[in-house]
Design brief:
The chain is an alpha+beta fold and 314 residues long. The protein contains 9 helices and 16 strands. 31% of the residues lie in helices and 33% in strands. Helix 1 crosses helix 6 and helix 7 packs across helix 8. The mean pLDDT is 86.
Amino acid sequence: MSNNVTDKWGILYCPKGGLLSNPKRRWERIEAALHEQNIEFDKIQSESVGSVDRLITMMIANGYKTIVIVGGDSALNDAVNCIMQTDKATRESIVLGVIPNGMMNDFAHFWGFDEGEVEQNVAWLKARRVRKIDLGCIRYTNKKQEKCHRYFVNCINVGLIAAIMNLRRQTRHFFGSRTLSFLFSFILLIFQRMEYLMDISINSDRIRRKVMTVCIGSASGYGQTPNAVPYNGLLDVSVVYHPEMTQLFEGIYLFLKGKFLNHRSVHPFRTREIEFKEVEHAMVGVDGRLMSGAPVGPFKVTIEQEVINFLIPV
């Protein structure tokens, strides 16, 4: 293999926090798997959440054509947004891969990557099976009245689940378990206000009523859009009306069992575009992380088909 930087992998290592994690030991295992596969790479470690953008931009500027994120959905989100800022020729020349290592690794799990199977993950990436994937995109106006947009690989949440996902990111540091942290977050929020007045247009449907949560998924959406796939040019949407308290616990059970759409309060749609004409004080999460500059006024979510080269398992 050539020593040219274009033949090397650029690896961004995002250490996972929490009481049960050991970032040094985790990297040593990944590094050993890379050496075992005779992969040439340069590794950079992110110091903070905010550093991912800067480091990915630097990798792109330095000519790396294979960029591998050792991290979760949020780091992948930052990476695709950096790549989408480049011109089409540059974007077409870059291939993105992931070794799951974050608080939430839903997009990696969709393809079959698993945190515990480091050696298998590296072997799959080396096989270099590339698939073009879709990206969802939220277009909105921020508090400064600037027109903005943000891409996502997995989903956007509007309402209660965005708040739960935000807490879940924090509580996972203590519990080390996706299920426990979700349940704890749910219990914290269950007695809070759980409805938001929304005015939503989906295809020919207009929804004007109080809604508990909306998930717009290009992929599985943390179980809320289980039938979505990031390569059909469509978004799956789950709109959840306010259930009775007994139905609420049934909904959580079905969510954890992967049967979310079976709940009577869940209304599924499939579309290329969804427009929020009004959202009453609801949080908005993108790939499991709250938006820093939340939308002010109406916003729209669309899909862009086959725009990122992504390494998938063989």
